[in-house]
């Protein structure tokens, strides 16, 4: 026996408070707050920065964090705090584009893998398998050796590296839904396969896609940092978190702040996104299990 | 019945905390059960029939609140039972058979070990003794070739055989009361008939008390000595099975019987559905739970208070204002 | 045997792997069945007897290994044939919890067949949906809800309403009342009878509950192990069953109008 929590069918639902209707949970709120702070500080970099990100001051080289330079300065005397703020703009933008690109392409491929014509599906299956087996750093080296590294190339690299993960998740959910009676019922009613995929099945994939978006974004932040650190990402003098760490690499033993503080920014951003992902997952699970009760 | 009561449930209620106050899912239910006697609790979904059974085993969800005067089980009050008491009661004194045997059995453990472990949990005995007892209870449950087939995993058995394993598991520690909660609902009719016959036979041979929960009045007629009809968390009518089915006195019982097709029903004598839907828990208030669907409401009475029990015949009682006022003619 | 919708000599096998050996098991073995205009045919049998499979073959959700489905005497073969058949034959699924898209509002789900088949002006569609909801005994407000805000009985009515949106002449119902409470079940049975009487709808009504089939159907077919073992007018089959399996099935039906035999006479 289940305890029904649905409201009476003949009366419109009377409104519980907004936060309850959104089914928020602590990790989700914590992650969202942290991410908002990070995003706002990146956006407001021109207002918050204590110096220009590319202002060289050779009188103050590799100074430790102090009241004048909160995060210290780098090898040519640029203010690290300002560079991390401006670097956030670049890193978050590039990671966001990479995430959206890989998710969109992955979703398209995943839906095709579940609803495509009979000859399309095995091709997509194989493509996903191959992509997942291929180390992305190798891919990055291969591509950046052929084309000059630039921000668009970096985003393209991200999409290539990450679409398969999204495609696999979307395909699995869509295939599972496709076997359900409501899809057969739509088929019997004459609904086309495209319409079934878009209007019936895709909305059921969305909650998982939101979880995936947060996780993917975290992975993209790290990916950008990795590639920039390897010199294949955002090109100097434009600051990005990975690029700043690359600059500080040679002084890692003497000037810890040059690598540790941009690293901290990366860790905090990933943490906020992982929290959001976990929170969204818990929220989806809670909503689904409540559905099952009725 | 001069036999001694083993179980006596007195004014028990079960509620869950809700957004706006507690949701009462079982409201002030009482019944007794004697050794060797069977009681059918019949009702539709949401009637609270499973909840009352779970309260007898202390297996309600943790947020549930049970209150009442007393649940007397062989002189002990189950309302006061702690974890330690439950461990000696569950399985050894009161056992339960669930609707879905697949969920009640561990898929990774063979039938033999599943029952053997349960036996050794409750009493100290050697593996050989446990094995002998396993074969014995499987035999009692009508499980074919127990020595040989008890090496199977649950997934290798049909639904009917799995339910027999669940019955053997329930019997393994020699309980005095077995609760079967919709135990035959998912089975095919011919298997269902076999399982029902088996439960009746075990009850008679072993002198067990049996509580059989069902939504099917046809099954109720086959299984029970006594029948308790529940609606929206309330007991509305109780008595001997034939007494209640042949002379239903609560408008709900009557409506239920007129909605349920039998092998005799035909369109010349149409079914008469009960209009509307069962009320949601928490929306009943103080009045009669059935008033929103009742064709013979007593105006100004059914809305404001619960009906007291009225005696229809020896051992047959009904909780209905209309019956209390006008007798059988009133509820026709 | 001819009828409006007819399945002729249908065979369907499934591959079964046991102990490493794959063999084919016939789920439906040379089954023929037909439904006349305005008739309710009951198809009874226990789980795994092939009753759902044959019904799904008749609407083209599953395909037969051999045999023909005929509609108005014409074999249904091409995609276009099936599309034409589905304008007039509809199917109501067993499980009301999986047969509705969880993210689609009831109103949208009911209007969809009208949109697809370009029936009625867009402005009329909401009206038609409301009328259909009323016909199956639901409040028109239900159109605004999502499936998880409805009870099992309400969902089953929505399923039925959706199948009726195209005004089919034949409805195939797969165990549509078995999950419902008795009082709700009686409401749905009454609705089906009303539809048959008012719209002249034909029904293929699949159920394991012989009591329900007896009440509803004028003709009944008993399936066992993928084959039809007995068929005939309901009274004849129920009152004077010829096949041993039908007799076993009837004897097993729990029936409150019948005083049971003592347990020791039935044998465990």
From TrEMBL, chain A:
<feature type="transmembrane region" description="Helical">
    <location>
        <begin position="153"/>
        <end position="175"/>
    </location>
</feature>
<keyword id="KW-1133">Transmembrane helix</keyword>
<dbReference type="GO" id="GO:0055085">
    <property type="term" value="P:transmembrane transport"/>
</dbReference>
<feature type="transmembrane region" description="Helical">
    <location>
        <begin position="196"/>
        <end position="223"/>
    </location>
</feature>
<feature type="transmembrane region" description="Helical">
    <location>
        <begin position="90"/>
        <end position="115"/>
    </location>
</feature>
<keyword id="KW-0813">Transport</keyword>
<keyword id="KW-0472">Membrane</keyword>
<keyword id="KW-1003">Cell membrane</keyword>
<feature type="transmembrane region" description="Helical">
    <location>
        <begin position="127"/>
        <end position="147"/>
    </location>
</feature>
<dbReference type="InterPro" id="IPR050366">
    <property type="entry name" value="BP-dependent_transpt_permease"/>
</dbReference>
<dbReference type="InterPro" id="IPR035906">
    <property type="entry name" value="MetI-like_sf"/>
</dbReference>
<dbReference type="GO" id="GO:0015031">
    <property type="term" value="P:protein transport"/>
</dbReference>
<dbReference type="GO" id="GO:0015833">
    <property type="term" value="P:peptide transport"/>
</dbReference>
<protein>
    <submittedName>
        <fullName>Peptide/nickel transport system permease protein</fullName>
    </submittedName>
</protein>
<dbReference type="GO" id="GO:0005886">
    <property type="term" value="C:plasma membrane"/>
</dbReference>
UniProtKB/TrEMBL annotation, chain B:
<feature type="domain" description="ABC transporter">
    <location>
        <begin position="7"/>
        <end position="257"/>
    </location>
</feature>
<dbReference type="GO" id="GO:0005886">
    <property type="term" value="C:plasma membrane"/>
</dbReference>
<dbReference type="GO" id="GO:0005524">
    <property type="term" value="F:ATP binding"/>
</dbReference>
<dbReference type="GO" id="GO:0015833">
    <property type="term" value="P:peptide transport"/>
</dbReference>
<feature type="region of interest" description="Disordered">
    <location>
        <begin position="264"/>
        <end position="287"/>
    </location>
</feature>
<keyword id="KW-0547">Nucleotide-binding</keyword>
<keyword id="KW-0813">Transport</keyword>
<dbReference type="GO" id="GO:0016887">
    <property type="term" value="F:ATP hydrolysis activity"/>
</dbReference>
<dbReference type="InterPro" id="IPR025662">
    <property type="entry name" value="Sigma_54_int_dom_ATP-bd_1"/>
</dbReference>
<keyword id="KW-0472">Membrane</keyword>
<dbReference type="GO" id="GO:0055085">
    <property type="term" value="P:transmembrane transport"/>
</dbReference>
<dbReference type="Pfam" id="PF00005">
    <property type="entry name" value="ABC_tran"/>
</dbReference>
<dbReference type="InterPro" id="IPR003593">
    <property type="entry name" value="AAA+_ATPase"/>
</dbReference>
<comment type="similarity">
    <text>Belongs to the ABC transporter superfamily.</text>
</comment>
<protein>
    <submittedName>
        <fullName>Peptide/nickel transport system ATP-binding protein</fullName>
    </submittedName>
</protein>
Automatic annotation (TrEMBL), chain C:
<protein>
    <submittedName>
        <fullName>Peptide/nickel transport system ATP-binding protein</fullName>
    </submittedName>
</protein>
<comment type="similarity">
    <text>Belongs to the ABC transporter superfamily.</text>
</comment>
<dbReference type="Pfam" id="PF00005">
    <property type="entry name" value="ABC_tran"/>
</dbReference>
<dbReference type="InterPro" id="IPR050319">
    <property type="entry name" value="ABC_transp_ATP-bind"/>
</dbReference>
<keyword id="KW-0813">Transport</keyword>
<dbReference type="InterPro" id="IPR027417">
    <property type="entry name" value="P-loop_NTPase"/>
</dbReference>
<dbReference type="InterPro" id="IPR017871">
    <property type="entry name" value="ABC_transporter-like_CS"/>
</dbReference>
<dbReference type="GO" id="GO:0016887">
    <property type="term" value="F:ATP hydrolysis activity"/>
</dbReference>
<keyword id="KW-0067">ATP-binding</keyword>
<keyword id="KW-0547">Nucleotide-binding</keyword>
<dbReference type="GO" id="GO:0005524">
    <property type="term" value="F:ATP binding"/>
</dbReference>
<dbReference type="GO" id="GO:0055085">
    <property type="term" value="P:transmembrane transport"/>
</dbReference>
<feature type="domain" description="ABC transporter">
    <location>
        <begin position="5"/>
        <end position="250"/>
    </location>
</feature>
<dbReference type="InterPro" id="IPR003593">
    <property type="entry name" value="AAA+_ATPase"/>
</dbReference>
<dbReference type="InterPro" id="IPR003439">
    <property type="entry name" value="ABC_transporter-like_ATP-bd"/>
</dbReference>
